[in-house]
């Protein structure tokens, strides 16, 4: 008797293994220089097997970005537990997101000068990232909240692609220019 749930579990494990391999290759080669053949080799599978799980390089990159985003969001939520002021939560969330990406070599690889344009396009086109930002800001079904979420995402991507002079400079920019616009009305 066939057990489809085992097949689903194996499929998920195989996809995770491929994404883990992609992470290693992104760190070593950079995102733009990484080819599917590099990831297949690092994962110990054929390119055909890789394409069975991810039908394109773009699909693999989006899956990786979404997986890592969920991990970063969980870390940020833990970091913000003790904060109750909405403005301070927003400022600290942005700073924590920047730190999480910069402190992780695989994520930082997405925002080198060679890869930042592609990464910005992927991030700002992601409905999942927009929804996560909207949920943080308020009601994700509210059009105004979604607009503020897109702006929040652009601010984070901009600071990752073109950092401020130092952490104090970035905090000041966020306090002066992001918090007043993005804080709940």
TrEMBL record:
Residues 12-72 form the HTH tetR-type domain. It holds the Pfam family TetR_N. GO terms for molecular function: DNA-binding transcription factor activity; transcription cis-regulatory region binding. The keyword DNA-binding applies. Keywords: DNA-binding. Residues 35-54 bind DNA. Transmembrane segments: none annotated. PANTHER family: HTH-TYPE TRANSCRIPTIONAL REGULATOR RUTR, HTH-TYPE TRANSCRIPTIONAL REPRESSOR BDCR. This is DNA-binding transcriptional regulator, AcrR family. The lineage of its organism: Bacteria, Bacillati, Actinomycetota, Actinomycetes, Streptosporangiales.
């Amino acid at each position: 008797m066939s057990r489809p749930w085992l097949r689903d579990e194996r499929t998920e494990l195989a996809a995770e293994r491929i994404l883990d391999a992609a992470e290693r290759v992104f760190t070593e080669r950079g995102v733009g220089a990484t080819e599917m053949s590099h990831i297949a080799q690092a994962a110990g599978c054929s390119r055909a097997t890789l394409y069975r799980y991810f039908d394109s390089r773009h699909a693999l990159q989006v899956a990786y970005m979404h997986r890592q985003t969920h991990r970063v969001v969980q870390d940020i939520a833990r970091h913000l537990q003790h904060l109750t002021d909405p403005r301070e939560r927003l400022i600290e969330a942005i700073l924590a997101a920047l730190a999480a990406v910069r402190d992780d070599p695989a994520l930082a690889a997405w925002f080198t000068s060679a890869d930042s344009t592609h990464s910005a396009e992927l991030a700002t086109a992601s409905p999942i990232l927009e929804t996560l930002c909207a949920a943080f800001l308020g009601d994700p079904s509210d059009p105004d909240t979604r607009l503020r979420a897109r702006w929040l995402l652009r601010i984070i991507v901009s600071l990752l692609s073109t950092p401020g002079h130092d952490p104090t400079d970035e905090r000041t920019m966020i306090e002066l220019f992001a918090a007043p616009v993005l804080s709940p009305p």
